[in-house]
Amino acid sequence: MLTIICDAPGKLSAIDRPKPLRNEGEVLVKLRRIGVCGTDLHIFTGNQPYLSYPRVMGHELAATVEEAPAGSRLEAGDTVSIMPYISCGHCNACRNGKTNCCRNIGVLGVHRDGGMTEYLSLPEEFVLKADGLSVDQAAMVEFLAIGAHAVARAKVEPGQKVLVTGAGPIGLAVAIFALLDGGEVTLLDGRTDRLDFGRDHLGITSTVQLGADDQDQLSAITGGDFFDVVFDATGNPKAIERGFGFVAHGGTYVLVSIVSSDISFSDPEFHKRETTLLGSRNATRTDFERVMQAMRDGKIPAALITHRMSLGDVPERFAGLTDPAAGVVKALIEV
Length: 335
Prior knowledge:
Quinone Oxidoreductase, Chain A, domain 1; seven-stranded mixed beta sheet; alpha/beta; 2 domains
């Protein structure tokens, strides 16, 4: 079966691997769509902290069932979305229902080989039936679930002023679910095309471009109070540190992006605001189910998909996705 492997930063190869055999308790799936994530781009550019090379990338996965265990809730031909966070089920986090931050987690495409291939065999619990969804939609569930999880962590309430810094796919996913929970969302980003996308396709009327007066603009939007909830989705250490200053007194700061560095902040400022600081990692089955229902309800815009390529074209075309001028929001690889 055709498989794309990242041998080293900047180097992708097309190789042939044997089709996997289905083990007991597993589901054999045929990959149909692979979403390209910022994590994949970081792997390609050599800036992912949890990875060793070579690696088969790909964790935003839609597939159809080829074979399922006897008595399974799944049948051949079912469209499925893959939950790529392979958790151990017995560590402290798993015992408390926080499988997204399992101590022994193995994320497809990061800690273990992922979905830029034709077939995978996976434990049944990580293969989610996607009734009513197209394969395009099923491939977008994972990155949207990361946004849904972050919003759930923050417990966004109707009428709260919410700032999302970084309007890439994850930031836009956060914005979608903050809006669905009744938040008044402002987007902050340096790219006008990303801010325009938020306005044109998500209905976000409050946007601020990075610049000399951006803090004054954010202050004016909130009457000087700043924001009840701030989400960082920049992947930039300096942006994360700066974001502490955008949190209102009594507010919450959620770090969705991850960086390979230490983060520092002013403790007096942190304490006088009584800031709540949260990390948000991956997503849970509940988050996946929420996203799939939102899709069935027509609440997720199809315009998020901006680029496509075939699996065979990946070695030649993948590097182009890293160019900001390409205007990529979500690229799908078709198998």
